[in-house]
Structure formats: C-alpha cells, structure tokens
Amino acid sequence: MSLLEVTDLKVHFPVKHGLFSTARESVKAVDGVSFKIEAGKTLGLVGESGCGKTTLSRAILRLVDATGGNIRLDGEDITTMTGRALRERRRKFQMIFQDPYSSLNPRMTAGDIIREPIEIHGLAKTKSALNDRVAALMKSVGLSAEQASRYPHEFSGGQRQRIAIARALAVEPGLIICDEPVSALDVSIQAQVINLLQDLQREHSVAYLFISHDLAVVEHLSDDILVMYLGKVVESGPAAEICREPKHPYTQALLSAVPEVNPADNRKRIVLQGDLPSPIHPPSGCPFHPRCPLVEARCNSEVPPLRSVGGARAAACHLI
Amino acid sequence: MPLLEIKSLQLEFGTGDKALRAVDGVNLTVEAGETLCLVGESGCGKSVTALSIARLVPTPPAHYPAGEILLNGRDVLKMDKRELRSIRGGVVSYIFQEPGASLNPVFRVGSQIKEALKLHRPEVATDAEVARLLKLVGIAAAESRMRDYPHQMSGGMQQRIMIAMAIATHPKLLVADEPTTALDVTIQAQILDLLLDLKQRLGMALLLITHNLGIVGNIADRVAVMYAGQVVETANAKELLRRPLHPYTKALMNAVPKTGARAERLQAIPGMVPTLGNFPSGCRFHPRCPKVQADCREKIPSLVEVEAGRGARCPYWQTP
Q1: Other C-beta atoms within 10 Å of B194: how many?
Q2: 3-state SS, residue B312
Q3: Omega cis (within 30) before B280
Q4: Are residues B179 and B208 in contact, defined by beta-carbon separation less than 8 angstroms?
C-alpha cells in the first residue's frame, strides 16, 4: 500500500464574467492527475507557473476541495473528510512553503512557531517534554536551542526555511509537501537546505512531494518525477531515466532550457515559442501542440492519453 | 578607450561611524559590443554597482568616497543633472527583474515606449516606430498589442516591452539586472536568446547581472564574480566555467546540482552570506572558505592578475 495515492484528481475553479452571471466556464487547474508516493520516497513535480502544481499540492492538503477523483493517505480516503477527522489526519501531512519571509508569523518566536503544532496535536504530555522536543527539533535542522526566543526577522532566509522545516517535522508527518522550498534562497544556501532535506528524510523516513521549476534540483532529490503542463501530467517515471532520456517534447524542451554550469555543454537548446496558453481556454487536442516543435495534424484534434512507454515510464504524446 | 570603465569604486550608505560600505574598490571594464556578466549572491553589491553607472542610487543616503565611473571617458560621478539626463537612456538603459513592477500600470505599453522616444529621439516618436520596436523584440500583432495595458500581458511579454523601451533610445550599454529570475525556464531561454540577438543586431554592450552561473556560459564574453562588496574573480566566461580559480567561485559551482550527473550529496558552502555591515575582517570569504590559512583572517587580499586576462582575489588560489 502506498503512503499517498492520488487517482484521477480534478480541481476546477468556476470563472464568472460579471457580478450576477452564473459560472459557465471553468479553469481546469488540475485535470485528471494520478500518482503514488511510497513511504520515505521523493516524488518531484515539475512544471511552469500556471501548470497546476501548487493547486495539486493544496488539494492533497485539503486546502482546496477536489472537483473529482480521490486522495488516499495510508489507504484511507481523505477526499471529502471534514472537521475533527480531517484535523487529526493533518498530522500526517505537512507543508513547507516557498517564501520563508511570509510563511512565518512575525509576532511569534521561532520556538513558539515550532511549539504550536505539537500543542495542537497534543504530542507532548508535560511542559518540559514540550521544551525538550522543540530544542531537539531546532538542533536537528541545524539551529541552536538558544535561538528559540528570537523572532523570524532576526534570522536569515536559509535559517527561516530551517524553522519552517522544523515546524513541519514537529508532528512527525509521513509526508511533507515542499512547494519550491529553495527558490527564494541564495545559491550557496540552497545546497545547505537540500542536503538538510535529504538528511532528515533518511533519519525520519519521511516522504516528500517536491515541487520545483528547477529540473536540476528535482533530479538531484527525487526518486520519481511527474511533469505537468496545463493541469495534466505529460510525462512520469524514474528521475534518472527522465533526465537522461526525456520522451515528451515538452520535457525535452524544459530540460534543454535549464542553464548549465557545465562548460563542455554542447547541448542543442530547444527554445519554445510563445507563452503558456490560458487554462480557461486550453488548446484543443494535445494542450502542448501550439508550442510543440514536432506538431502533426492529429495533435490539434486528438487528446493524447498518458500511456506506458516502457518500464515504469509514461508519456502523453502521439509521436512516441 | 573602453565604453565603460569603473575604477576602484566605493559606495557607502550613511555617514560617519555608521557608514556601511556596500561596494569596496570595484574595478570593471566593458568594451563596446561586449557582454559582461556580474555574478554574485544577494547583498554582494552587484545591483548598486550597476545602478551607479547612471547614478540611479539616491545620494544621500548613498555617497561615493572614492572611485570613478568613466562612460565614454567622462566621469559619471562628476556630471551635473542635465548631463545625467542625457546619458540615462541615451547611453545606458536598464531592464530589471520584475517587469510587472517596472511598468506603469495605468498607461498603455505603447505610450510608455513612446515616452522614451520623445525624450531621446523626438523626431521618430510615432506609432510606426513603436510598432517596429515591438516587432524587433518579437511581439506578434504589434499594432494591436501596443494598445494593451501591462496587466493584459504575461511576464515574458512584459519583459519584452521593457526591452523594447530600453533599446528604443539606441543605448550603447544595456544593463540587465536579473532579467529572467522572475520568469519560467522556457521563457527565460526566450528572453536570453532575444537579448543576445538584439545585442548583435544593434551592436550594444550588455552588462548582465545574475546569481545564476548557468546563464553565464550561454551568454557572456567575460565574467566578474562579486562577494561582499568586492570583485573576487574576473575571467573569460568559458575559462571561468572550465577552471574557476577563486575558492568562492569553485564552491559556488559545486553547490548547484547538475542535470545528468547525479551526485549523492551537494557540496554546500557552510555559513551564511555576510550582510552589509557584518563583513568579516581580512579576506571576506575566510569564514566559509575550505582552504583558509592563518593570515586570511587579518590580511586583506587584493585582486591580482594571476594569469593573462584572469584576476583572482586570493593569494592561495594555487593551493589544492
């Protein structure tokens, strides 16, 4: 049994064109996405802004309601769970956000921020046990226990992200959703936080859903990768295989667009034309066809299904 | 005579004992038609150095205790207001990180481009010229698009408008301060391609500021790496990527994950990026340097030419 199993998940938002009009159109932010995450593993989720990766993560956390499909955590369907039952399950999945400058309450000390989830879930019996636990958590993310009385503004960006990680770990979750956790950090600090995430995974055997637009970082951290485009999965499979030999033209373009430090880099860069289309009026047929360098006649009428392309890999393209 | 020559520039914020030196003895040269990349992490002084070229840093609070900024042989730091007005746009143009924040939301993009033309090339301040510029930066349906407001465009399009505005005045030097950081990778590739193409077609020099060493290989002729207000290494771009000499540059390159070469662990740089006012004594990188020696703590190293065309601010650059 997988830790997290998402089946045919759909999240559609109605679009209203005036104050009194009824919604006739909808944004299909997430449109039929399925995947699994095993305990202690990392799934990387890649895509450009507006492809639905953040909405997908919010739906899994039950911060937005799913329009269709279901989400099973530890074999238990949480898609429509509410109230107390949901609150108890929330212990099992936590989140780390992109911007550590806005995800921490500026009026709470670092210690209080980490303490709060432990108190809410009643995970410490006594006050001293609580304090010990906060100190241990701070230590495990590379901060010292004396820093517990400081406020977020007294920390640097990398340290704040460590506080956010400690807060997520405080309730011993099985899954942490990391939404672009290193994008806002300096290059030299990114590596520290990535290493920390890997160490913590080994120690606590926590699974990550790691969302990023940086394919190099995702490849480094992930066991498997899911590539999204306009609310749909266009390619999935083991990280090393996808990065070595991407099958879908979008994944190929995405990989070739990553600026490389390697000086012997002679890759042919595929520069995609045009912008990401509007998700309200997605293109007919394959959603990628207006930007695809390999487009054929049938691409603008037939929607390519996500199908197996050998081994554990799948891609949604007519031409594979 | 080089187009731009910055000589031992110092920039301080505040006065007296409380003065904070953000830029400390920076030397840079940009020849006509050349691309120089200025690489560094947040707070290293790269942006204020670039803004100083057109005296865009407000004085006070800033002031320049020493140094010269020679633009076409004339010192920008000694120019009066009228002269500054003529070089801003006339000789140096800027594009910035957030195109959405740089454009005025209440004016149509066409009229914003025309404003720059009215000041510097009043004889061609026409719709036809605006349309020509928009086509030059790759905007389709230029005649109708120039009547759009900034919010009606995507981030990539907005950055194209900024570029059109910057090149409208035929500058000799285009300063691009993190022009692609806020954009998706596929759009980033488009914008970098456009900048390279325009540079060649219009014969401009380009000063590109970035924290991403990966961009350097694709676009730069030469690179200057900054750390804590000082230039620590200068080199030809390909040379730098093939064989970085300064320990900071080496560490920075090792800290980013590379696609296709999966390493178990990233080599993170320990410690934090020093903030303004807290620069360490001696070599500013010594607290984080893997090959720190006893005298690094006190002796301030100078930037010396260690090989033809290559400078490094580290006396131990040959030490393995």
Answers
A1: 19
A2: strand
A3: no
A4: yes
Is ipTM > 0.85 here? no
Contact A188 B186 (CB under 8 A): no
Query: With contacts defined as CB-CB under 8 Å, which chain A residues touch B215?
Result: 259
Cα torsion through A208, A214, A218, A219, rounded to 10: 180
Q: Residues of B with CB below 8 A from A190's CB? A: 255-256
Residues of A in contact with B190 (CB under 8 A): 271-273
Which residue has 């780390």 as its token pair?
A96
Contact in structure between B219 and B233 (CB atoms under 8 Å): no
Of B41, B213, B268, the CB nearest to A261: B213
- Alpha helices (runs of H) in chain A, residue ranges in sequence order: 53-60, 83-89, 110-120, 127-140, 157-169, 187-204, 215-221, 239-244, 249-257
In sequence order, which residues have a C-beta less than 8 Å from that of residue B311 and are 6 or more positions away?
A: B231, B233, B234, B235, B303, B304, B305
Per the CB < 8 Å rule, is B272 touching A156?
yes
How many Å apart are CA A54 and CA A299, to the nearest integer? 27
pLDDT in tens, A266-298: 566 778 877 777 777 888 889 899 889 888 888
Residues 6+ apart with CB under 8 A from A82: none
Pairing outcome for strands B205-210 and B173-177: parallel
d(CA B208, CA A25): 43
Quote the pLDDT of residue B14.
85
Q: Is residue B65 a contact partner of residue B26, using CB atoms and an 8 Å limit?
A: no
Secondary element (H or E) of residue A13: strand A4-15
Report the alpha-carbon distance of residue A85 to residue A61 in Å, rounded: 14
What's residue B260's pLDDT?
Answer: 67
pLDDT digits (tens, 9 = 90+) for A34-48: 999 999 999 999 988
Whether the CB-CB separation of B160 and B192 falls below 8 Å is answered with no
* Reported CATH class of domain B4-91+171-312: alpha beta
Which 8-state DSSP code applies to residue A150?
A: S
What the block records as the tokens of A45 is 């989720």
Closest CA to B293 of B282, B279, B309: B282
List CB contacts of A27: < 8 A, sequence separation 6 or more: A12, A13, A15, A279, A280
Q: Where are the beta strands (DSSP E) in A137-251?
A: 175-179, 207-212, 224-229, 232-238
Do B273 and A189 lie within an 8 Å CB cutoff?
yes
CA separation for the pair A66, A80 (Å, rounded): 8
Query: Cβ of B242 and A263 within 8 Å?
Result: yes
* The two three-digit tokens of residue A101, written as one number: 């400058």
pLDDT in tens, B208-261: 998 888 888 878 899 999 999 999 999 998 888 888 999 999 988 888 887 766
Residue whose pair of structure tokens reads 């009215």 in the numeric block = B118
Element (H, E) at A73: strand A68-73
Dist. CA A163–CA A152, nearest whole Å: 9
